[in-house]
Structure formats: structure tokens, C-alpha cells
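Appendix B, example 12.
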Amino acid sequence: MIAIGVSSLISPEVAYFPGSYFEAVAKSTLQRRAMTVWPGPSQLVRRWQDGLLSNREKMAVLVGGSASHDPVLLPLYREAVMSENPRLRMAAAYGYRDLLGDGLPNLSAGVSPDDARRLAAEMDAVAATLRERPLVEFWLQAALSAEDRSMPGWSGVVLRRPPGICFRAVDQVVSFDDFEYLAAAFRISAAPGSRFALMRLMEAATLSRFYLLPQGQRAGSGTKETNEAITAASEFIDLWVDTRCRPDPSAILKASLVTLGVRGVDPFAVDSYWLWLQVLRRGEPPWRAMAARRLYELGGRWSSLSILQAESPGDLEAWEELVSWYRLWPSHSSKPDRAGDRPLH
């Protein structure tokens, strides 16, 4: 991230918070700026603690910085939710939920002092848990708790949420390094819906194909295809977890790439741009969000593509727009012709 001046945190979008225009337009503009030109989360914490930010700048940090999903920002939300400023309290409540990937709060009645105290107590417990556990495992535990099950050796607070909200949160924060957590939750869960969601998330985190749809105009998917996908995911876990002390994300991805006809490419190398561009363009829908995140790490555009909703109209539109953006990105024409530019089979 680039270190910038104090005035750069002034964001006109906060004038529309909260409200429908903020949700529909202003939020995405603010968060894209936060993820591309603002300083990183740790630097935002230092800027906040310097005591030089106005309330409008603090609001921008709370609702814009939440896109990073970085728990290092939690103390800012804890401080702001106890503020005497009603709008700052609302921004803290909203941004805190958004930071976690949680369902967003209803702010139509504001955030009362009693609500703020309860939320501050929750933030304390969540912050203590996330100092010991990653955010992905935090949400997988919340999903399993709905089945009265638990991640191995879990200790810490558990938010009571429907599994759908939990997996939507995992969708937003999962990385390639999280395969082991997904695999553990998949083995523990007995709920068909949860296992299907975990299977799709593992497809994305490993560039694998478990869920194979039948071909043809009249073909449709059903129980047979789902059961076959669950079995394939189970066998994949057996291969990579039971035969190794700790799964290596790089080795898993390299093996998947070989299956796709791409050899000799390190998926985590700094020059892997072309590989991930091809995955974004031609890969399976669940892979697109992971490719977009990797391209962002390599200096590309930030996006909020979904794994579990990759084929929804909104996500398809966002994906098409992102692919078009990369066609115009200056780095596109300056990258060398590498092995990663081979078509994916």
C-alpha cells in the first residue's frame, strides 16, 4: 500500500451513509479507493491513534477500511461504537459487521448507548478470539455450531448465525492457505447444505472440479451430481490431508494446474500474472474470485467477486466488467509471454 497524506482519507461517500444510495453506489466506490490508494490497515490504526482524524475521516475508515477484513482494525470499531457521536456509532456498528463479513445491521433507529455497550462487549470477545484463530475458522465454527458440532480444539466466542450467513462470510475472506480448515469442517459437518457449500469453497481454494454438470441442452443437475461431487471432494481430502502432515497450498495448486495442462508455473510467484489472468478469464466460475484476489495482490484491481454466487446475474456482470478492465490495464501489454498464458483445458 502507498503512504499518503492526511487529506486523502476525506471521502465524500460518507455523506450518503447510511442509506440506499450508499449501499447501491457510494460504498463500492469508497471501498475500492480504500483497497487501492489508502494506507494499509496497520497504518490506518496509527493514523487514527495520532488523534488527527476528523469524525468524517473516521467514518470513512470505519465503513471503507472494513473491506480489508483485517482484525487489526477491531480496536477502532470498539472505540468508535462508544462515541457520543450518533453517526460515528452507526458507522462503527456497520463497519464492524462488514469487517467480519457478517450480516449488516439495521440502522434505521440508530445505535443506542445500551446497544453500543452490548456491541462493545461482543467486539472484545471477538477480538480476543481472533488473536488466536483466523477469521475463516471463526466462521466455520459458527456454521458448525448450528449442528452442535465444533472445529477441532476450538476455544473462543461463537457467533450464533444461520449457516448461510457463515458461509457467505467465509466466501469473502477465504484464501488458498485455508484449505485445511475447509477440509476439517467438511469432514465434521453432517448437514447436506453445509457440505455442498464447503465443497464449492474447496473447489475455489484448490482450483479443482468436483461438481461436474452433465452436458447437453436438456441436461440438468440433481442428487446424482451432488453426491458424486461430495464423494470427489472427500477423496481429494483423503489424498491431500491424510497422506501429508500439513497440506501445502502451492503443491495442491501446482497439481491442479498440471491437470489443466499448465506445467512449470509457480502460482505464488511474483510473475504469475498471466496464469491468474487466464484463470479469471477461462476458469470455472468458483475459481474467479480467487483469481481476482491473487491478481489484486499482484497490483491489479480490487473486486468483491463471490465464490458461492459466481453465477448470479450481479456477479457475472461484475466479472465481465473486471475482465474488460484487465484488457485495458497497462501491465497487460508489458507482461512477457509465459507458460501461464497457456489455455486452461
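The chain is about 60% helix and 0% strand. The chain has three domains: 6-130, 134-258, 260-345.
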